[in-house]
């Protein structure tokens, strides 16, 4: 008869009080270290979760105290897209944010490069002027600017008064790029000039590839600003619904659906989603560009 081999039973050694105390101390240390981060994450995430869940509720449930939809109404997003003018707001916002970002980056890079790498009389004064422009609120000059664009150039009711000035640089973008370009060693520029590169070719072939994180950070800042801008479209484009952006159109949508909170929340999600997705995919370059800025003064 075949002998049946019995598997020996392993008896776990009892946990000593010292080991229990060490495990408890490790757990408490982990909670203490991560509690603030978890609380901060919940503080920022829960409002988005609330908005998203409310956007999928029925009209009656959105006015109740329920937090979870009984039936997931994905048709709310279809109703928002069918709202007259919503797609036009999308198009205008993409033009404003996209074109404005390109113009700002292209016009700010040469100025930032000159302030960072050139030695000329009045450079520090020019930098102080750029910084002073950052401190000037746009509301201070809005009246003369509106009179110039609306009365003299007759561009009221359009987004061009907001887009055209971006072709002449932005003080914050220039300063941020200048601080980043200061971190690029001058030896790379000297080597390019020894090889026969002029200033423009050095900028295009050497500086720009090395400054991609800083450029990405500036582009994201400008894109987010233009996408969320409410003040500018309200001043220049409020009289023409065909020139409204999403930020200004959302206010009109909210007024027309003041009792339909599910549709209002669905429109809010559609306005926020592109910004969140752009930051999610570009956060590495954004964080690198911001953290490396200001290493050198």
From TrEMBL:
Gene3D superfamilies: MetI-like (1.10.3720.10)
Source species, domain of life: Bacteria
UniProt family annotation: Belongs to the binding-protein-dependent transport system permease family.
Broad class of where this protein is predominantly found: membrane
Domain ABC transmembrane type-1: 90-282
TM region positions: 30-53, 94-115, 127-147, 159-181, 202-225, 261-282
Protein name (Swiss-Prot/TrEMBL): Carbohydrate ABC transporter permease
Membrane topology qualifier: Multi-pass membrane protein
Compartments (UniProt record): Cell membrane
A Pfam family: BPD_transp_1
Key words, A-Z: Cell membrane, Membrane, Transmembrane, Transmembrane helix, Transport
């Amino acid at each position: 008869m075949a002998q049946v081999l019995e598997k020996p039973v392993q008896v776990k050694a009892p946990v000593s009080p010292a080991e229990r105390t060490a495990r408890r101390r490790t757990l408490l240390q982990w909670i203490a270290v991560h509690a603030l981060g978890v609380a901060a994450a919940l503080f920022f995430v829960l409002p988005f979760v609330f908005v998203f869940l409310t956007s999928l509720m029925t009209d009656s449930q959105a006015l109740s105290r329920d937090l979870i939809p009984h039936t997931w109404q994905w048709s709310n997003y279809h109703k928002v897209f069918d709202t007259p003018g919503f797609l036009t707001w999308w198009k205008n916002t993409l033009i404003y944010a996209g074109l404005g970002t390109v113009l700002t980056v292209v016009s700010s890079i040469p100025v930032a490069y000159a302030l960072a790498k050139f030695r000329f009389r009045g450079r520090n004064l020019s930098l102080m002027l750029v910084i002073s422009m950052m401190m000037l609120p746009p509301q201070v000059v809005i009246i003369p600017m509106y009179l110039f664009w609306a009365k003299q150039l007759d561009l009221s009711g359009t987004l061009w008064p907001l887009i055209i000035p971006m072709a002449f640089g932005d003080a914050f973008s220039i300063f941020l790029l200048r601080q980043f370009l200061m971190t690029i060693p001058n030896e790379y520029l000297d080597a390019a000039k020894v090889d026969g590169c002029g200033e423009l070719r050095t900028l295009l072939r050497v500086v720009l590839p090395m400054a991609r994180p800083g450029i990405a950070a500036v582009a994201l800042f400008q894109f987010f600003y233009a996408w969320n801008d409410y003040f500018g479209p309200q001043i220049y484009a409020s009289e023409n619904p065909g020139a409204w952006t999403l930020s200004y159109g959302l206010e009109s949508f909210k007024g027309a659906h003041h009792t339909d909170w599910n549709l209002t929340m669905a429109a809010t999600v559609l306005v926020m989603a592109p910004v969140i997705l752009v930051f999610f995919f570009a956060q590495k370059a954004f964080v690198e560009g911001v953290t490396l800025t200001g290493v050198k003064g």
